[in-house]
Amino acid sequence: MTIGVILPPLATPPSDEYIVQMVVPVSYGWSGISMGGQMTNSLLVPFWPNGDEIVLGPRWADDYVLPTAYAGPEITLLPPATVNSTHVNAIFRCQNCTVWDGGSLGSGDLNGTAVFAYVASTMTGVDDPSDVNSSFMEHDYFNFFGMDLSAAHSSLYTQYVSGGASSTTAPPAPSSTPATPSSTSSAPAATQTECGGTGWTGPTVCASGLTCVAVSPPYYNSDDNLQTIYTKLTQKAFAELHGKPVRAGYVKYEWNNSFYNLDDGMSMSSFCDG
């Protein structure tokens, strides 16, 4: 799975839109992204293939149940969004998408740090692929990453919207494959989130001025704001943030208006410190 996010240049008043790219294996039943880094009270965008078309739409949930259609955001597929024999390449413009019920992108700072979550149902498809409001089963894979939004603003934004700029030049977020919960990135160090940890196979070089420091469970992080959040979490909660599926009976841990699920037993890790 590969994920990229790009924003328009900073302006006053700030823009309410951005572009997201997600590339996933065509074999996945459905995939998606949470723009607030959690399932509840966050803008969710699930998508899936329907033949050679991509079906996607905004959803929202106030509990750990099937998210329902969410009015307000306007989502438009952009070229070269496509489905081929191996992958779904979903590139979409999301307008009226920086603020939603219960939250906002980057906690309201479009030049700060945003936490995202990405999910996939690697084996089970949706009930009706032709219906954007179709029901589907819970995902069997998820993970989290943080992003320095100051590195995601681009003067080429209008060209991306019109399809006139190559999507490969947009600063992507880290990419991952669900088979092994690790990440690699071709993005600048400023957008890198993990930097090491038990089982980590991705980049170990932090952004300029930051040093990878061991703290607790898998993996590490190179972002100051995320460091503040993660160091407040227990080891169990941090472990849950990095690869444990949500299941009934988990204890909810509340931090910074977000819910994280606790579970037992993960090994130690770290992240970067300024």
Automatic annotation (TrEMBL):
The enzyme's E.C. designation: 3.2.1.8
One Gene Ontology biological process: xylan catabolic process
Name of protein: Beta-xylanase (EC)
GO molecular function annotation: cellulose binding; endo-1,4-beta-xylanase activity
GO CC annotation terms, alphabetical: extracellular region
InterPro entries reported for this sequence: CBD, CBD_sf, Cellobiose_DH-like_cyt
SUPFAM superfamilies, per the entry: CBD9-like, Cellulose-binding domain
Positions of the UniProt region annotated as Disordered: 167-194
Assigned keywords, A-Z: Carbohydrate metabolism, Glycosidase, Hydrolase, Polysaccharide degradation, Signal, Xylan degradation
UniProt keyword Hydrolase present: yes
Residue ranges occupied by any CBM1 domain in the UniProt entry: 187-224
Lineage: Eukaryota, Fungi, Dikarya, Basidiomycota, Agaricomycotina
Low complexity bias spans: 167-191
Pfam assignment, any one: CBM_1
